[in-house]
User: Fold this.
Amino acid sequence: MAHADADAGDLPPPPAKKSPAEEEAEKRRKKLTPGSLMKGLIRSGGGDATPAEGDQVIVHCTTRTMDGIIVNSTRREHGGKGVPHRFVLGKSKMILGFAEGFPTMLKGEIAMFKMKPQIHYAEEDCPVTAPDGFPKDDELQFEIEMLDFFKAKIVADDLGVVKKIIDEGKGWETPREPYEVTARITARTGDGKELLPSKEEPYFFTIGKSEVPKGLEMGIGSMAREEKAIIYVSSAYLTNSSLMPQLEGLEEVRFEVELVQFVQVRDMLGDGRLIKRRVVDGKGEFPMDCPLHDSLLRVHYKGMLLDEPKSIFYDTRVDNHGEPLEFCSGEGLVPEGFEMCVRLMLPGEKSIVTCPPDFAYDKFPRLPANVPEGAHVQWEIELLGFEMPKVDWTGFTFQEIMDDAEKIKTTGNRLFKEGKFELAKAKYEKVLREYNHVHPQDDDEGKIFANSRSSLHLNVAACYQKMGEYRKSIDTCNKVLEANPVHVKALYRRGMSYMLLGDFDDAKKDFEKMIAVDKSSEPDATAGLNKLKQTIQETEKKARKQFKGLFDKKPGEISEVGAVEAEGNKTDDATGSGEAASTADRDADAKEAIPRADSELAFEEESPGLLARIWPSASRIFSSLGLNRCTIL
Assistant:
């Protein structure tokens, strides 16, 4: 038995599965027959390296008949344009003779390949089309000069932009829109004609503003700081720009680029209103060494109003006795735009931030006295350092853990009252994560712990509700109800979320179940039912307007329904926003209590029909119109 196991262990591993490209190459290689592809050496190359898959090869090619008549050529002396061909082995479409011949050549080598028709353009299912008038059914000679080959960085999937790295850069970060770039650039056509001469002073441009040709911008967008590279750009990517306004008629341009520097510019909101511009690099790697998580931060900053001239309203070096500002992120202690940008800074970094009013001080409860409402501001921020405090309850008693958790929860409650629901939710979820490592020792501790966890889940549900994510609010309430199906506050909050989501039947069941399991919750449940009734009436009223005349049509008039509906939509444009606003305010108007829960009541659900599954709100709309079933012939 042991001998059999040893034999089994000595078996070679199964062969690796080939890629589709490898399978296709092997399939084409089977078309080679003795004498179909012959190579003759005209001039030896240098070195011993040959092109491999993934390399870009740059070649001159002259095609002749067996009588020596030139069919076509890349060389100017043979009637060509002087622009060599570029291929990426394993990626570019090419004739079979090239795919098999190029990997045998050295750099600088000139060779003559004699090919049967089935090895060039007469190949069955040939991936490239022969030029007009090309004698594809004849045996031909292809004179190839291997000018260069190198490992290619493919920038554009169609190989219209390919990069050759000359000197590796520093770090991994690359520029992207709307980064500001400083680079030395020269440009030549495919046949070597100079388009953009070399100069000592570098060029300056912004990514995304079409200040350089598209292909060049794409290539630079793949470069690291201080990298040197050659970027080959084909005609499809040679867009006109302020750098090179006239590029029509060029098949290819070769750019030599040295990326001197780039300034990280971030559009934090994606609409151009909150912009962070790094002016001094920090220490470390972005973003791993940034204070992405809640941390204790130390910053110096200068705040200015964006008026003419700019007026300084606060400077920590002047107004704070030279001391930096210290604050904990994630607690709403600074304006939202300020904190968003600081979280993406490295220690020692200096950035300039321009911020709109709604992310500066208009929604910040502690408005500086000298900042008017509606003011656009600019902050010059220097991140001195940060510490990432961790919740560590090692060695704590159960009561100390509960006290520390209550402090974090209290911070979340403050953020909730200030309308910072995302930050509040993060605080509650932080405690819930740490609760996974807490193990109560007796029944009394277990009861306190369970109540605290349920309270935190319901606070998270309230945050989701305020954020308009009603389905997530319902799912969070379900976590509490799974542990305690008669938790009255969870029923109430889930019922409110169902109502806001438009699931009126489920909302009604939750409110009625509250009364069934705990009579003391009847005032809150009744308030919820009254709110639900009001919401249903508003929905019915809107539905009647929207579908007015829909069911008054005689047979043959159903084609006019679309027009009636469109007219109804046009009429209700003004009321639609009001309806949405009233929906968003419903939860704020509802009062909550924490009644006791004693029993559980089961409710039977009606199976939805086909129309209800396709159009969930249809049943409520038709019911509001007094039509339980509707058939349109």
